[in-house]
Amino acid sequence: MSEVTFPEGFLWGGALAANQSEGSYRAGGKGLTTVDMIPLGAHRMPVKLGLEKRFTLRDDEYYPSHDAIEFYQRYKQDIALMAEMGFTVFRTSIAWSRIYPNGDEAEPNAEGIAFYRSVFEECRKYGIEPLVTLCHFDVPMHLVTEYGSWRNRKMIALFARYARTCFEAFDGLVKYWLTFNEINILLHSPFSGAGLVFEADENPEQVKYQAAHHELVASALVTKIAHEVNPANQVGCMLAGGNFYPWSCKPEDVWAALQKDRENLFFIDVQARGSYPAYAARLFREKGIEIAMQPEDADILRHTVDFISFSYYASRCASADMTAQNSSAANVVKSLINPHLTRSDWGWGIDPLGLRITMNMMYDRYQKPLFLVENGLGARDELTADGQINDDYRIDYLRQHIQAMGEAIADGIPVIGYTTWGCIDLVAASTGEMSKRYGFVYVDRDDLGRGTLERIRKKSFWWYQQVIASNGSNLHSE
């Protein structure tokens, strides 16, 4: 790898999500959300996939989101730690149900607005730019039970009202916005992604893609509103990124990989280009899907995003013969196990060159600035007897990926910034575990919610501090 140079003003920081960090799940008037219903343990995946209805909480289950790491109570301490590292950007999300507890009230919840206003003011105090996701896997449960969530077109107007409330309430504090987190995960984890639960006699593909249409129209409408409220607002879409490699050079495998990439990029094709891609017509026809559209939808969809944000943890592999037997169960996005890569503790292939490949592909496709808003290594961290966490494996992972991002910039790709996931240990969205740790800051909490919640700086904390101070030119560790 050559020495990489990052542009002046490049934004460095980290990312959290409300549902994985805030806790205090009923404080300040907050309503229940989809994530609040997802338990730890054997029922977690069936609930996430929309296969098992979970509309009420059970006494015999543990729900990791309910307390999480109590960012709601400790945000000033946590933002001070981010400032100590030198963050110039902090990605977080607003819990829809803190602003509108049921999702469909006429007036917002003043306590929720006050909380987020305080969070963003705290960021500004340290010169940290908030990057805010409006919907990060947490639909108010009332909208699921009353309307069927995003399968219902009424969600578009409700989301638009919520978004306008946020744009107006936080105007001058937030200028970087994302509409839906990892919008393509709707296809892979429908309940956690979009609040969808399936009935036995319906076509799940029809439900998912109709919901996708409603989200895409809502995203475009909200992008329009953001620009009306303040022309300086910058709105991005957000993709769970990572290219699919063909398992072999057999043409059928190459075609399978292309199809899997299209499945992933479908949403961003619409959000970045302003209309449905040509391949969608055959896809819908072969899956028995008929999208109900209104005449105004085509015009609304033309309000495209200003930039493309994405997560990148690993690349994927596809073949024409993918089966449950030969694909990895390590992620909801199914992939063959790539024998050329080492894997994380949770089986995710570590592929920094794949990041450069993904970034080049996306810029070739969209010609819009990129923002890498999630990248990190989930690992089991050990606290030594003297209170240290020597996470050299995390430093190595991040160093390689920052170098790859730098190479992509050298390739000519405009990149706004980089926020690692998750900058402080938090509840893992995939498994609900605390032991799957990503942060520069260790949180004393275990998978069952036991611990003091004390924050402890890891070795990577000091490493990332020097990376930011050098604008990415010093990636070495002592």
In angstroms, what is the radius of gyration? 21 Å
Tell me how many strands there are: 14
CATH level 1 name: Alpha Beta
What would CATH call the architecture?
Answer: Alpha-Beta Barrel
- Structural class comes to alpha/beta
Number of DSSP helices?
Answer: 15
What is the beta-strand fraction? 5-15%
- Encode the helix/strand succession as letters: EHHHEHHEHHEHHEEHHHEEEEHEHEEEH
Shape annotation: globular
Largest sheet: 8 strands, parallel, barrel
Please state how the strands of the largest beta sheet are arranged side by side. 1-2-3-4-5-7-11-12
- CATH topology term: TIM Barrel
Low-confidence stretches: none
Helical content stands at: 25-40%
How many distinct domains?
1
Structure description:
- The protein is of the alpha/beta class and 478 residues long.
- It has one domain (11-469): TIM Barrel (Alpha-Beta Barrel), CATH 3.20.20.
- Helices cover 37% and strands 13% of the residues.
- It is built from 15 helices and 14 strands.
- The protein has helices at residues 18-21, 44-48, 71-85, 96-99, 110-125, 141-147, 154-169, 190-194, 204-229, 251-273, 280-287, 297-301, 352-366, 392-410, 459-469; strands at residues 11-15, 89-93, 129-135, 176-180, 234-240, 244-246, 307-311, 316-318, 327-328, 335-336, 370-374, 415-421, 441-443, 455-457.
- An eight-stranded parallel beta barrel has the order 1-2-3-4-5-7-11-12, surrounded by four helices.
- Helix 3 packs parallel to helix 5, helix 7 (154-169) packs parallel to helix 9 and helix 13 (352-366) packs parallel to helix 14 (392-410).
- The radius of gyration is 21 Å and the shape is globular.
- The mean pLDDT is 95.
